[in-house]
Each structure stands twice: as C-alpha cells, then as structure tokens.
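Section 5.1 Outputs to date
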Amino acid sequence: MTEKIAETIQKFNCFSLLEGGKDKNRWKALEDKVTFLPVQYQWEFIDYQKLYFRERVSELYDLRMVITSGNHDVGIWSLFLIKENGIWKINTCGLEIFEPRFDMAFQMGTKTKRKFYKNCLSLLKEIAIIYNISCLRFSDTPIANDIEVWHRFLMENNGTICKVTHQALYDTLLSADEAKQKMHKSILQRIKDGYQYYDYEIISSKDTNIDERMRKFREFHIKVSGRETRGIDTWKIQAEGIRKNRDFAIFQYDKETREMDGASLFTVTHSCCYYSVSAYNRDKFDRPIGHMAQDVAISNLRTLGVRWYIVGDRYYPANASDEKNLHISEYKEAFSTNIFPKFYIDMDLNLNN
C-alpha cells in the first residue's frame, strides 16, 4: 500500500482501511448484517479476485475498508486500485465500482446515507487525482430497494448512464411450480434428462475433507481445459470459501461408468449466489450436465434460504459480441425467473480543467 493512499484515506474520519487478521473479523461481522450482500463483498471472494487479477495486471492495491460512525462499524466497501496496460482504474473486484453496503441495524435515513456517499465520492476523487484517473465507472442493478438512493446520488453528481445491460436471475422465494411457469419448457425437459444420466454430491462446510475435494476439482478442471488456467492458491481460497461460508461445489458422476463428468462451484452470501467455476466432460457436451448442476444448486439455495441466484448477463442482438454469446445468454434467460436492468454510470472528473 502506498503512503499516499493511506494518508488520503486517513484524512476521512469515517473510513478504516483493512489488512486481514483482526480486520477480517470486523468485515466478516458485517457481512450478514447488510440488506443485500453481493458476492463481490464476501471476504474470501475478494481474496480470490485479488489473487486472480494479480496474475494478470501489473499492480493491484486492495482498498477494502470498513465505514465507521463514531466508534461503531456501520458499513463495508469493496475496492481495488488496479494498473493495467499502463492505466490506473478504481473498481470492485475487477468490475465497476459498487455501492458501499450498510448495517441494517444502524438506523440510517436517506440524509445520513447521502453524507456517507458524499465522503465516498470525495475519497474516490482524491485517489483519482493522485493516479490521473479521468473517469470513474459505477454499476447499479436495482435488485435491492436501498440501491435507489445510490443511483440518484451518482446521477445528481454528474453521473451519466453510458449503457444499460440486463441480468438474468432466479428467485427462490417462488415455489418450484411458480418458477417452472416462468422457465422455458425445453430447459425443464433437459433438467429432467440430466438426472437420468447422473448422480451428484454437494460439497459444503459440512464436508470433512474439503481440501481433498477441491484438489480433485482442480485436477478435473485441468484435465478438461487441457491446461492450468490459474494458480493453486486461488483454489485454496475457494476451499476456504466453502469452509467458512455458504459456498458449495457440486460433483456429477456418470451412473454407468461412475466417472466424474461435471464439477461446479457456487459462491454464496446470505442474499445471492454466483455461478463461479465449472468444468464439464467435453466429450459429453450433448448431455445436459450444466442444466442439472444449476437445478441442484437452486434446490440447495432454497434449503439455505438464499433468495437470488444470479444466472448471468442477458445480451440481445444489439449488444451481444457474437452469435455464440447471444445463444449463451438466451440459455441463461431460459433458466431465470426475472430479468433486471444493469446500469453503467460514468463520472467524468474533468481533471484537465
């Protein structure tokens, strides 16, 4: 961490920069207390993203911090400062800048929340000046009601919506029958077919040998990929995510050969689930391995009491990069019960003026 960043953050009385150890406990204590917790705010997922991007960028600083009010920790904010191809960017886990999350028990009205947002934006601008960042990019998907204040605040402070995309989600509060009414019939049949081919097991925090399970996952991933795509430490962090959180993996075995044909990992908070990693036997792509895995995951999310399963981005002909990407997103919509808009908001800082 550079001294300039630390000094800049210390100027604000409401931010506490974290460095692991006891600081991790402060963050983890707030994870289940916020209204809506994206996976990009789960401590272990941030650790994973940090390692993943450090293998791909020239410099990365982890700026995750606790937001304080007096002597109380009232919120958390997930930020990276990344240098890629000679250009510095501020973001959340390699994506855009996400809204800070606040403790539900801290009775915060709109006026108070705006004061915190003002400090957040002032901090971003000061860091941007140091690293010559001319534009900040935010994103906002209105799944949780309290995001609305953040969205309006950005727009009132010279934010501009530069594009709108869509996200496909599955709502587990719907009964299985209600959800089926919203899903495509072809998907439902493919799910049914998957159970004809495969048995499965779920690896969760209850498992007594998580490290060995994830070693098996990694070896299978390398086998089907034909190469190792990332460092072994990222797999260790994902194992820790299963051990410490609601994360889980699903292994699928061919009923006849008993060989593993599928492995998938799901990152989970109290609010939502993200389909993180998957590996499937490429010789059996005609089989609905992935369809079945997602159905098993959704059933498990109902058991865990987690409402939203984030299926993925839904692209349309005008914004899909190619036909393949369009077809994949059509499949994601077919598996979802809801489509939400995702707003990308740019804020030009006019550093040259």
